[in-house]
Amino acid sequence: MKKMREIIGWQDGHGDGIFSPGGAISNMYAMLLARYKMFPEVKEKGMSSVPKLVAFTSEHSHFSIKKGAAALGIGTESVICIKADERGKMIPSDLERRIIEAKQKGYVPFFVSATAGTTVYGAFDPLIAIADICKKHDIWMHVDGAWGGSLLMSRKHRWKLNGVERANSMTWNPHKMMAVPLQCSALLVREEGLMQSCNQMQACYLFQQDKHYDLSYDTGDKALQCGRHVDIFKLWLMWRAKGTIGFEAQIDKCLELSEYLYNKIKDREGYKMVFDGKPQHTNVCFWYLPPGVRYLEDKVEKMKRLHKVAPVIKARMMEYGTTMVSYQPQGDKVNFFRMVISNPAATFEDIDFLIEEIERLGQDL
């Protein structure tokens, strides 16, 4: 974990952290710490002892931010969703506007979650601008890098997370882009000792202070769980085997494959990209318009029929067992494909096959 903190950019890898069952729990840990940092009395006295708290996150962020607020008794209505631009990135000016608005209503802003690699578009929020706003208003800045955090391993792509070193905490899931077996999610925290004071219960029958070994290795009391997997062991073994350069190579390859897919379909007949420009992550979002939909002039009917295309093609993919690509709507956009490449064993030939298979399975629609 020290090495991961060094890669984030925290001086000498100082700080703290814990491995959790997944990014959703890591994000909840961050919110828990942010609340405790601002109002430590909440640990003993509960939510009745603190004012009305509000958190902020992008409208394209992961649902776990709201789920964490619900679990911690803060409430989903206290999570304010900030507008994103056409590429899915949080708009900093809207963030500051909503923070000021919340303060004017008597609420206390305590937590901002920026996303590094959104689930659908693979967008990276502008971390430097968000960090400036958090510093100005004295708010905990968290970076949900569950999906995009591993780009820090790549010298070619880590610029997309510029400003992450200014965050108070970061979620990073090696079980995603680094291909570590499930489950392996880390919550990294810049302030050392905060997790311990926030979560410890000092149960004397487990956490004796006179053990014969270095107590810093006994992480149990700073976790919410009692029994836990040794998730860090899988990551340590892979890191020893592949090295940082090995992880970098596989991440770069996945991004190269996604760019190859984008370049193949952006001007290909029957395909339309969901947003303009090269994707920032491996998420390639597009519509496939079969011949029966492609030339329709009635726009309402065209969108109605296009909405049904991706679910049918995906169902056929699963029936044939050839490939599988996710789809979803987003805002006012009808169902589109979201091809995400995270398997370093994939090849350019696999991408070519995917394109041909989509066309084969959708030709009669």
From TrEMBL:
CDD domains, A to Z: DOPA_deC_like
Essential cofactor(s): pyridoxal 5'-phosphate
Residues carrying N6-(pyridoxal phosphate)lysine: K176
TM segment ranges: none
Enzyme Commission number(s) from the entry: 4.1.1.15
Localization annotation: Cytoplasm, Cytosol; Cytoplasmic vesicle; Golgi apparatus membrane; Presynaptic cell membrane
Any one GO BP annotation for this protein: gamma-aminobutyric acid biosynthetic process
Swiss-Prot/TrEMBL keywords: Cell membrane, Cell projection, Cytoplasm, Cytoplasmic vesicle, Decarboxylase, Golgi apparatus, Lipoprotein, Lyase, Membrane, Neurotransmitter biosynthesis, Palmitate, Phosphoprotein, Pyridoxal phosphate, Synapse
SUPFAM superfamilies per UniProt: PLP-dependent transferases
GO MF entries: glutamate decarboxylase activity; pyridoxal phosphate binding
Keyword Phosphoprotein part of the UniProt annotation: yes
Gene Ontology CC: cytoplasmic vesicle; cytosol; Golgi membrane; presynaptic membrane
InterPro entries: PyrdxlP-dep_de-COase (IPR002129), PyrdxlP-dep_Trfase (IPR015424), PyrdxlP-dep_Trfase_major (IPR015421), Pyridoxal-P_BS (IPR021115)
Membrane topology: Peripheral membrane protein; Lipid-anchor
Nucleus among keywords: no
Endpoints of the signal sequence: none
Family statement drawn from the similarity comment of this UniProt entry: Belongs to the group II decarboxylase family.
Function: Catalyzes the production of GABA.
Subunit description: Homodimer.
Designated name of the protein: Glutamate decarboxylase 2
Source organism (scientific name): Sinocyclocheilus rhinocerous
